[in-house]
C-alpha cells in the first residue's frame, strides 16, 4: 500500500500514523545483510492489515560506486539506507533500477534522483508509473539492457507478465545472482500476495522462460520475505498451480 494511502487512511480513521507505525515496533525499520561478496540485501517494512510486511531491495558495491535495485519501501528509510551504505563502504549510490511500477519498487525514484542517483526503469514501467501516479525514473530503457558500472556487469530481462505486466528481473552473470523482485515469491510464502494487477494465466509461462534463460542461479532474490532459498522460483510455480486448481474448483461450483 502506498504510504500516502496509509496516511490518508489514518487521517480518515482519526488515528495518527504513529499508531499504525507502532505495529512495526517489533521489527527493525531497516535491515541490511550481506548476500555474497559485494551483494547486500536490504529490507524495510510497511504495515498492511495491521501486520508488518517486509520488502527486499538489493545493492551491489563496485569500484565506481554502488548500484541499487529498488529503493526502501518505507520512505523514511531511504536516507538511513544511503547513510549506512556510505558509512560501511565509503561510496555513494550512483545508479538505481526500479523493477516494476508499484510503490515498493518505484517509491524511492524521486528521493534518489534528488540525491544525484541516476534512476532507471523500463519504458513500460515508466508509462505505468505515469498512469498510476507513482514516482517516475529519470531514465528508461526500451528493451533488455546490459549495464556496466566499473567492473560489474548486469542485465535487465523482461520474461513476460506475472505479478504485474511490467515486472523485470536483473541478472548478474558473474555471481549468478537472479534478482527476481515481485515476479518471484519467497520459498516460505503461503500465497501469491497482492495479485490485483497480476496476470495469473501467463505468470507460469513467464517463470518457465526465466528458468530457461538463467538455468543455474546461485541466488534468487524475491521481492518480499525470506531470500535464502533457491526454491523460491519453483515454489512460485507451485503457488500458481495451487491457485489455478482453487480457481477451477470454485468455478465448478
Ligand atoms: Zn512487491
TrEMBL record:
Gene Ontology BP term (one): antibiotic catabolic process
EC number(s) given by UniProt: 3.5.2.6
Class in the EC hierarchy, top level: hydrolase
Catalytic activity: a beta-lactam + H2O = a substituted beta-amino acid
InterPro entries, per database record: Beta-lactamase_class-B_CS, BlaB//VIM/IMP-1, Metallo-B-lactamas, NDM-1-like, RibonucZ/Hydroxyglut_hydro
Subcellular location: Periplasm
Cofactor: Zn(2+)
Main location: periplasm
Secretion signal span: 1-23
Superkingdom assignment: Bacteria
Gene Ontology molecular function: beta-lactamase activity; zinc ion binding
Keyword Aminoacyl-tRNA synthetase carried by entry: no
Assembly information from the UniProt record: Monomer.
Family assignment from sequence similarity: Belongs to the metallo-beta-lactamase superfamily. Class-B beta-lactamase family.
Protein's recorded name: beta-lactamase
Amino acid at each position: 500500500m502506498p504510504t500516502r494511502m496509509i496516511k490518508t487512511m489514518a487521517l480518515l480513521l482519526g488515528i495518527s500514523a504513529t499508531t499504525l507505525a507502532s505495529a512495526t515496533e517489533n521489527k527493525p525499520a531497516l535491515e541490511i545483510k550481506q548476500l555474497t561478496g559485494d551483494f547486500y540485501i536490504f529490507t524495510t517494512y510497511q504495515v498492511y492489515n495491521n501486520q508488518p510486511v517486509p520488502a527486499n531491495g538489493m545493492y551491489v558495491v563496485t569500484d565506481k560506486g554502488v548500484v541499487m535495485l529498488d529503493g526502501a519501501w518505507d520512505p523514511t528509510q531511504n536516507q538511513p539506507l544511503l547513510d549506512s551504505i556510505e558509512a560501511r563502504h565509503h561510496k555513494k549510490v550512483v545508479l538505481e533500477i526500479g523493477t516494476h511500477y508499484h510503490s515498493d519498487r518505484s517509491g524511492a525514484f524521486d528521493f534518489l534522483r534528488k540525491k544525484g542517483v541516476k534512476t532507471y526503469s523500463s519504458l513500460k514501467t515508466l508509462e505505468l508509473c505515469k498512469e498510476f501516479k507513482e514516482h517516475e525514473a529519470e531514465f528508461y530503457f526500451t528493451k533488455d539492457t546490459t549495464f556496466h558500472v566499473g567492473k560489474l556487469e548486469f542485465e535487465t530481462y523482461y520474461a513476460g507478465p506475472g505479478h504485474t505486466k511490467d515486472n523485470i528481473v536483473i541478472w548478474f552473470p558473474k555471481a549468478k545472482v537472479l534478482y527476481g523482485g515481485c515476479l518471484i515469491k519467497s520459498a516460505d510464502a503461503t500465497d501469491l500476495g497482492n495479485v490485483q494487477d497480476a496476470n495469473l494465466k501467463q505468470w507460469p509461462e513467464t517463470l518457465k522462460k526465466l528458468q530457461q534463460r538463467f538455468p543455474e542461479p546461485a541466488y534468487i532474490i524475491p521481492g518480499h520475505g525470506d531470500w535464502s532459498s533457491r526454491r523460491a522460483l519453483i515454489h512460485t510455480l507451485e503457488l500458481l498451480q495451487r491457485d489455478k486448481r482453487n480457481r477451477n474448483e470454485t468455478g465448478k461450483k
